[in-house]
Design a protein that fits this description.
The chain is of the alpha+beta class. The chain is 32% helix and 26% strand.
Length: 324
């Protein structure tokens, strides 16, 4: 999700005036914090605390860590017993299940068996055998994940289910990092969680954080001025694997079990990182027309679809004003 480019990118030392930039590896990607603050030490301490929050969440939400809460919940599918959930994991799963219902499964956090199959496929550059795709899809389905609100618990109904929060976790982490920074009195900030952006107040004397849709590769596309909003991009224009003559996205359509081949990307601008991250993934699978229906009940949300056809790019913009 690196198709956004932050135009405002100045560096200053920890103890000088102006912008401060901090980086940290987490969740398999690079997290970047940009802060407009005169007190460099205050900015540094705030960034360290925010990165610690991201690390804490990684131990809960990662499907790569065997000891993470998410992995332990997935393993409970072997018995189908109730699993007590932390507040963070329960919050994400509740949001994911709501979106899964709205999209009829085009967004699905139970897609883990397919995700793992395609990780191997991308490495070997071979489409997974049909029998393995079929077996994996039998363990996928949001209807097999039951959440028990009165107990803050969950139950997985099919043995071998694997949860994958790749389309929502970084946005949620960025939300929590923003909360941490604001609590530290650092409101003029931006968090870049591997391309998922969450912004606080704009820098001084600026309308917002300037973000170009499509990144430097598409200089003719719009520049957004964003503050106190989140921006996330999902697509296969940059992240794909070539298998034979076909380009397959790293994103999987849960209903087919295959990587997307649309040569498109979508950027979503909305109120929170969790919402932007998950909607970007969902909207790419849905396409433009179904996305219009999905966003009809989200008046604060915009979507920018970029389609590559040969050497030409086409942009479809879905803005709140169009849905009045």
């Amino acid at each position: 999700m690196r198709s956004l480019f932050i135009l405002l990118f100045f560096y200053s030392s920890f103890y000088s005036f102006g912008y401060h930039i901090f980086e940290h590896d987490c969740m398999g990607t690079k997290f970047i914090i940009k802060i407009d603050e005169d007190n460099g030490l205050k900015a540094k301490k705030g960034a360290i605390a925010a990165f610690k929050e991201a690390d804490r969440l990684n131990l809960i939400l990662s499907d790569y860590e065997d000891s993470s809460e998410l992995s332990r919940f997935s393993k409970s599918s072997s018995t189908g017993e109730k699993f007590r959930l932390s507040k963070d994991l329960y919050t994400i799963l509740t949001h994911g299940q709501k979106l899964a219902n709205e999209t009829k499964g085009d967004f699905d956090v139970t897609v883990g068996p397919l995700s793992r199959l395609w990780r191997i496929a991308r490495f070997r550059k071979r489409i997974p055998p049909q029998e393995k795709l079929t077996a994996a899809m039998e363990r996928v389905g949001y209807n097999h994940l039951k959440l028990l609100s009165n107990e803050r618990a969950g139950r997985l109904g099919v043995n071998g289910m694997i949860l994958d929060l790749g389309g929502i976790a970084k946005g949620f982490a960025a939300d929590r990092m923003l909360y941490s920074l604001k609590n530290a009195g650092l409101r003029r900030c931006l968090i870049d969680a591997g391309g998922d952006l969450v912004t606080g107040d704009p820098p001084r004397d600026k309308e917002g954080w300037r973000i170009r849709i499509g990144g430097n590769q598409h200089p003719d596309l719009p520049i957004l001025n964003v503050s106190n909003q989140a921006v996330a991009t999902s697509g296969d224009i940059e992240q794909f694997v070539l298998i034979g003559d076909e380009k397959f996205s790293h994103l999987i359509n849960p209903s087919t079990g295959l990587g997307l081949t649309s040569r498109s990307q979508v950027t979503v601008v909305t109120s929170s990182g969790m919402e932007a991250d998950s909607l970007a993934s969902a909207c790419l699978v849905l396409g433009v027309e179904k996305t219009k229906l999905l966003l009809a009940e989200r008046p604060q949300t915009s979507a920018y679809f970029l389609h590559c056809r040969g050497k030409k790019n086409y942009l479809n913009i879905i803005k709140p004003v169009e849905r009045k």
